[in-house]
Amino acid sequence: MTLANIADEIHVSQTTAFNMRHKLFKAIAHIRDSTLLSGQIQLDGKFVPMNFKGTKSENMPRLSKMRSSRSKTPLAHKVCIMTAIDSDDHIFMEITGVGEETNEMMHVFDGRIAPGSLLVTDGKFAFETYAKNNNLNIEIVKSSKFTNEHDFNLAEVNGLHSQLDIFLKRCRGVSTRHLQGYLTCLY
After folding, report:
1. Could you give the C-alpha distances from 9 to 13, 25, 118, 124, in angstroms and in order?
2. What is the mean pLDDT of the chain?
3. Do 84 and 15 belong together in one domain?
4. To the nearest 10°, the Cα dihedral for 71, 72, 77, 80?
5. 162-174 pLDDT, tens digit each
6. Residue 8 belongs to domain spanning
7. Same domain membership, residue 41 and residue 17
8. pTM higher than 0.85 for the full model?
9. Burial letters 82-95, b for 16+ CB under 10 A, else e
10. Are residues 12 and 101 in the same domain?
């Protein structure tokens, strides 16, 4: 529901509805923090453009960009959302930084993956390094293929990314500042 709809429904101001929503996000984050991924875990990064929705012009970290149907935003200007889903449908989504997946970004999974788990990834170097350093098994599905030679795929994690795209489009974008709260509540 939109903030205006929530405010009307429970008879509070939009500011109160906004504050209540974000308190709920923090409460749900505590539950998420105790989730341990195990078994077969599909893992991939999702990239969304930085969004400064609601930021006053004097506080903008950069000039506004002109929209163009031909322009592609480089990864250096996109937020990386590390996404994982295990065989028990436990989901993990967290903003890890800006740009392509790196070894430092992978530390978001420290203590969140059970020993002996199997990572199914697209073969980025950071994923392979993390699996090796943490004694995890890994299956790589090349980007140009739907499955690998052992019939592993990334369908579940790609489905999550599609659902996230639909959600962000419906919201007409979410400020990067508040995006983690929404990610926490999507699952």
Report:
1. 10, 19, 45, 46
2. 83
3. no
4. 150
5. 988 888 787 676 7
6. 1-34
7. no
8. no
9. bbbbbeeebbbbbb
10. no
